[in-house]
Amino acid sequence: SAASADEHDNFLECLSNKFKNTTTSISPNLIYTPNNSSYTPILRFSIQNLRFTSESTPKPLVIITPEQETQIPHVIYCAKENNIHIRIRSGGHDYEGLSYVSEIPFVILDLINFDGITVDAEQKTAWVESGARIGALYYRIAERSRTLGFPAGVCPTVGVGGHFSGGGYGSLLRKYGLSADNVVDARIIDVNGKILDRKSMGDDLFWAIRGGGGASFGVILAWKIQLVDVPDRVSVFTVSRTLEQNATQLIHRWQYIANNFDRDLFIRILVRRVNNISQNTTIRAEFQSIFLGGVDTLLPLMQESFPELGLVREDCIEMSWIQSVLYFAGFPIESPEVLLNRTQPNVRYFKAKSDYVQRPIPEYGLEGIWRLFYEQEADEAEIILSPYGGIMDNISESSIPFPHRAGNLYKIQHLVYWGENEALNSDRYISWIRRLYSYMAPYVSRFPRAAYMNYRDLDIGVNNNEGKTSYSQARIWGFKYFKNNFDRLVRVKTKVDPGNFFRNEQSIPSLYSSW
Ligand code: FDA
Questions:
Q1: In sequence order, which residues have a C-beta less than 8 Å from that of residue 229 and are 6 or more positions away?
Q2: What is the DSSP letter of 126?
Q3: How far is the CA of 344 from the centre of ligand 1 (A)?
Q4: 211 pocket-lining for ligand 1 (C-beta < 6 Å)
Q5: Does the Cβ of 89 fall within 6 Å of ligand 1?
Q6: Which of 371, 409, 413, 472 is the most buried (most CB within 10 A)?
Q7: ipTM surpassing 0.90, yes or no?
Q8: Does the keyword Disulfide bond apply (predicted)?
C-alpha cells in the first residue's frame, strides 16, 4: 500500500541519516528490502513453520541483520520515529511465527549474525549470543568438556533468544530445571537504546526476561549461563509399545511414577498412529529415555520403579552426554558436527498446543484420545508427554515468570502436521487439534488451563492489533502462561517500556500505554 511504501522510505531514510551522523556505520548488505534478491531467502531461512510462508502472509518492509550491538539502537530509534513495529528474530522457531509476521507494518531485526559462544569450562559458565542455536551451544560445551552440559531443548536448531526467554526445557529438566533457571546474566537493549546487563537492568527486568518472553522487553543480545555437571557416561533407550502390547496400560502406569523417578532418570513418551506388522492401524507409544549414569545402575532402578515396561540390557546404549543429544534429536551419534547446522531439512506445516496434567488420566480417557488419532487429519499427529517432578517441584512458582512447578505430573504437547499438498486444507488440521484440545479439558489443569509460552498458541487469547489492549484482555492468555506472575510482568513492562513499543499478539501490556 501507499502508506506502507512511505513508512518504508521514511524508515530507511532515518536509518541512513542516523548512520551518517554517528560513528556507527552499517553495511548496506545487512539491510534487505523487498527488491533485493536476497530478501526472500533471508526471510525464509529460519522460518520453521510453513504455515507462515504463503503469499498472503504479511511480509516485513525491511529485514536488518546487524553485526554490531551499536547498530541496534539506531534501528529501534528509527522504528519508533516512524511508528513501525519491530519483530526480533533469533532462531525463528516461534510456533505462530511472531518473530517474522505482523499484521501491522513492521521490520525484522534478525540476530542471525549474533551467534558467538564462549565457554569457560573452569568457571562452568558460558556467554551465548541470542542468534546462536542450542545445538551449537551443546557442541561448544562438549568441545571443552565431556562432563559439562546445559538443560535446554531437544531440537538443535532452536534459537537461544526465544528459547531462554520463554523457559526452555529438554531431557535434563528433572535434574536441572529449565534453561531460564540457569541464566546468571544477560545483555539487553531497551526501548531507549541503552545496553544493559544484569546489574544495570535491575532485578525486575532480569527476572522478567527469564521466562516472560523477551519480545515484550527489548532486544536481548546475549546470555550468561551456568553449565551443569553430567556424568562421563549416560544411558539411553527407546522402547516402543503398540496398543496390542499394552501401550494404554503402560502410559496409564507411567503417569503415577514418572514424576517420582530418581532425578537422573527422564522418560518421555511420544504417541502417534502407525500401522502394525499386520498393516492394521494402531497407536504406538515410544518411551524415550536418558539416565544420567551407567546401564548397571539403570536396570535395577527400572526393575524397581517401572518393571511393567520390561526394559532389558539390549534396549540400552551407553554414550557420552553429547551423543545423547544427537540420539534425542534423531541423528547418528557419531557426527556431532550436525549440531552446528542452523537449519533442518524437515520443516513442515504444523499447529501445536500444550497442557499440564495434575491427576493421572484414566485409561478410558486415554482411549478417547486414540479415537481422535484414528481420524483422517491425525495421519501425522503426535502427542509428547514430558515428565515433571525432580527439581521442578523444588523451584518456587515465582522464582522466574515460568510458573508450572510442583503439582504438575507432566506436560503434554499436542501437535498436528500436514504437507504442502494439504496447504489449502490447513483449516481441517487446525480444527482437528482444537477438537483434541476440547476433548482434553476434563483431564488437564484448570483455573487456569495452563500452557507453556514457548509452545506459543494464539488460540488461548491475543492482544488487539490496533488500539489498546486492556490488562484484563491480556490476562486471558497471560494467566495461562504465567499464572500470578503475569501481574509482576505487567509492572515490569509498565516500568521499562511504558509506551508499549515492543509489542505483539501476546506481549505483556503496559498499563500506561494507549496501545
Ligand atoms: P524466534 O526467533 O521465532 O523467537 C521467538 C519469540 O521470542 C518471538 O516472539 C521473538 O520476537 C522473541 N525473541 C527472539 N529472540 C529475541 C531476542 N533476542 N530478544 C527479544 N526477543 C526475542 N521448546 C522447548 O522448550 N524444548 C524443546 O525441546 C523444543 N523443541 C522445539 C522444536 C522445534 C522444531 C520447534 C519449532 C520449537 C521447539 N521448541 C522447544 C519451542 C522453542 O523453545 C520456541 O519456539 C522458542 O521461542 C524459539 O526460539 P527462537 O529464537 O528459535 O524463535
A1: 124, 147, 148, 149
A2: E
A3: 15
A4: no
A5: yes
A6: 409
A7: yes
A8: yes
Q: Does 215 sit in the ligand 1 pocket, CB within 6 Å? A: yes
Residue nearest to atom 37 of ligand 1 (CA): 93
Cα distance between residue 78 and residue 102, in whole Å: 18
Dist CA 428 CA 418 (whole Å):
10
Any atom of ligand 1 within 6 Å of the Cβ of 48: yes
What are the backbone dihedrals phi and psi of residue 125, each rounded to the nearest 5 degrees, phi first? -135, 170
Amino acid occupying residue 28: P
Give 91 Cα–ligand 1 centroid separation in angstroms. Answer: 6
From ligand 1's centre to the CA of 89, what distance in Å? 9
**DSSP codes of every residue in 434-471:** HHHHHHHGGGS--SS----TTS--GGG----SSSPPPH
Q: What does residue 237 show for φ and ψ, rounded to 5 degrees? A: -155, 155
Q: Is 509 helix (H, G, I), strand (E, B) or coil?
A: coil
415 grid coordinates: 501437535
- 169 Cβ below 6 A of ligand 1: yes
Ligand 1 near 154 CB (within 6 A): yes
In a structure prediction context, what are the per-residue pLDDT tens digits for the chain, which is 515 residues long?
A: 445 678 788 999 999 998 888 888 888 889 999 999 999 999 999 999 999 999 999 999 999 999 999 999 999 999 999 999 999 999 999 999 999 999 999 999 999 999 999 999 999 999 999 999 999 999 999 999 999 999 999 999 999 999 999 999 999 999 999 999 999 999 999 999 999 999 999 999 999 999 999 999 999 999 999 999 999 999 999 999 999 999 999 999 999 999 999 999 999 999 999 988 788 999 999 999 999 999 999 999 999 999 999 999 999 999 999 999 999 999 999 999 999 999 988 899 999 999 999 999 999 999 999 999 999 999 999 999 999 999 999 999 999 999 999 999 999 999 999 999 999 999 999 999 999 999 999 999 999 999 999 999 999 999 987 778 889 999 999 999 999 999 999 999 999 999 999 999 999 999 988 77
Contacts with 213 (C-beta within 8 Å, 6 or more apart), sequence order: 165, 166, 453, 506, 507, 508
Residue 271, strand partner residues? 285, 383
Q: Looking at the CA of residue 161, tell me the nearest atom of ligand 1.
A: 15
Residue nearest to atom 35 of ligand 1 (CA): 93
Nearest protein Cα to ligand 1, atom 40: 153
β pairing state of 31-32 and 62-64:
antiparallel
Nearest CA among 294, 175, 311 for reference residue 254: 311
* Exposure letters 497-506 (e unless 16+ CB within 10 A, then b): beebbbbbbb
The yes-or-no answer on residue 455 being catalytic is yes
Ligand 1, atom 30, residue with closest C-alpha: 155
Q: Looking at 417, 437, 455, 481, which residue is catalytic?
A: 455
